[in-house]
Amino acid sequence: MKSWKKWTAMSLAAASLTLPAVGHAEELKVYNRGQAQALQVEQIGRYNSGSGIGEGGTEIVAYDANSKRAFSVNGAARALDILDLNGLKDGNGEIPLLKRVSLESFGVSASDVTSVAIHPEGDYIAVSVPSEVKTDPGHVVLLDTDGNKLASVEVGVLPDMVTFTHDGTKVLVANEGEPSDDYTVNPEGSVSIINVGSGLDNLTAESANFTDDIVDSDVRKVNPDPENSTYAENLEPEYITVDKDNRYAYVAIQESNAIAKLDLQSNSFTTVKSLGYKDFSKEGVELDPSNKDEGIQIGNWPVLSMYMPDGMTAFQSGGKTYLITANEGDAQDWEGFSEEVRVADLAAEDAYALNADLYQGYTQEQLDQLVQDGLFEDEKLGRLNTSIVAPKNAEGKYEAVYGFGGRSFSIWDADSLQQVYDSGADFEKITAEANPEYFNTTNDEDKLDNRSDDKGPEPETVITGDVDGKTYAFIGLERTGGIMAYDVSNPASPAFSTYFSSRNFQGDEAAVDSASGDVAPEGLTYIPAEESPTGQTLLLAAHEVSGTIAAYALGEKPETQPEPVPEEKPEQPVTEPNEPEKEEPAEETTAPVNEEPKQETEKVEEETETVTETTTTDPATDEKDSGQTAASAKSDTDDAEGQPLPNTSTNVFNWLLGGVALVAAGVIFFGINKLRKRA
């Protein structure tokens, strides 16, 4: 080969290396219906727990503004992961693990870690841990921000969520009190209140219990014999939020479709109110109820669905307190008792006598005609999951088709617990526009219309935060994936802003794997700009199925970066030993990586992977997965109407790099031609 040909080949190869790679494992898809003032979102970081798909490697995440650390519940490892977010300000996209604190080091009977919260001043953290026997009392363990145990307190049965009051004087714990799988034991649900205002010595928990006299009569009881059981046995607290003044806490009781109000002065419940039913026969309130209707079929149906919120948050507007709920839906489904059944199965037993008085959108004649035309067939309502624990008439028949979950978010007046707003059919309509090939997919398989017969996209978690002068609600969709952002500055009339997702779809019926990006948001944490390591507002999203945490930057970028926070050398991220009494003190090191055997040290340094003694990642596999993800991410970001839009800031940067590469290639070709003429 002539020298100029060699030069040409080498020059083109070099130029190609400067071309930007389109798509990566964290490629963000953004959809905003073309709004000029939509919220700006960019993914700037990611933590990978190293867990297997669906093992719960990341579930709930809390943030410490002082140390810029995050604390993540790792269900797969039965541990608490301590993460360092300081590198985000320098553009380091891989969030490192500092330390993994094992369940065994807590020194109490424990089967799992379910929740984590940080004291408002960052003094210490609280984690909730159920007992090894699910129906026995659990514990709350208090740790310093290095993961060292400070105290533990026995609480109620199955503590599922923990939070602090805003003044930091009380720890509140939602004790779900689930029954045993065979339903022979059904403990009472409760809320534990731990007073930490005077320090952490000799702590005890006070219990707020339910009594029948403060529960509205239309709050449902869910068990094999509801008429002969108390509300204390039936009500299962799921989530807690506290008002700004620390006067009241509000407790979501998901399976009973209710919210309880807790007086934090008397530490007792004042009321438990039913949230009622969402009427899908009304205009603007639609759903797709079947996975056998050949795709997207969103419309009105004679379905009354229970809101059944999971996550909930309180916020202030105009001097009033409002609650926002993520209306996921959930059923009692145990080996010894299950309320869940298909509509077609009840219809086959002649269990329905639909009554138009319960619906706003139908006359009795219209309802009768719908039934005559095959309403209970699988392609219509037959596949929809319903409950046997629902109202019946005097003849023992159901007068409505009842469903689980609102497929929406709602806003409620905290004083009256009356609904102020519901997002209607927005979530299904927006996801259908943004990602029609994977509408109502599930979180372990990329399959169209897979969850329509269940609870649709399943809004799981919600949080509010201010960005660029507006108050936004962020709602995570557990099944479809991604996060909805709404401007809720006017609680009576919220406005959709942006839907964004870093999940990568890989083809019809493809299984979710490590190339699927961030799948199934379970917990959200808002970080205001003044507390952020980057000086920009951030949102952390813990994704349970993928075992990852995504860090999203929100709104306008700051003109200057914040001053770095001086901190001591990080402790080595070693896993706490199984036997606490044999614990060895961790040595200090300047690099936030785990200690490996000497023969592996060079490999770890070359591949810059963060590992632990119990969790390792294969760099070669990660690179392969990232490459596979790039192709699917690119196909998901086609700029077409109704399709997700790509991350604009990333694309602009890519085009700039591409332009530089093309100019360089032009100069090279000009030189090559000159040489050829001389030759």
Q: What is the helix content? A: 10-25%
Instruction: Please state how the strands of the largest beta sheet are arranged side by side.
Output: 29-30-31-32-1-37
Tally of DSSP β-strands = 37
**Mean pLDDT, rounded to whole units?**
85
- Largest sheet data: 6 strands, antiparallel
Low-pLDDT segments: 1-25, 573-656, 674-679
Strand pairing plus helix content: what structural class?
A: alpha+beta
Strand content: 25-35%
The number of distinct helices, counting runs of at least 4 residues, comes to 9
Q: What is the CA-atom radius of gyration, in angstroms? A: 27 Å
Distance between the termini: 14 Å
Features:
679 residues, alpha+beta
Structure report:
- By secondary structure, this protein is of the alpha+beta class.
- 15% of the residues lie in helices and 29% in strands.
- The chain has nine helices and 37 strands.
- The strands form ten sheets. A six-stranded antiparallel β-sheet has the order 29-30-31-32-1-37. A four-stranded antiparallel β-sheet has the order 2-36-35-34, with no helix packed on it. Strands 3-4-5-6 form a four-stranded antiparallel β-sheet, with no helix packed on it.
- A hairpin with a 4-residue loop joins strand 4 and strand 5.
- Helix 1 runs antiparallel to helix 9.
- It is globular, with a radius of gyration of 27 Å.
- The two termini are 14 Å apart.
- The N terminus and C terminus are likely disordered.
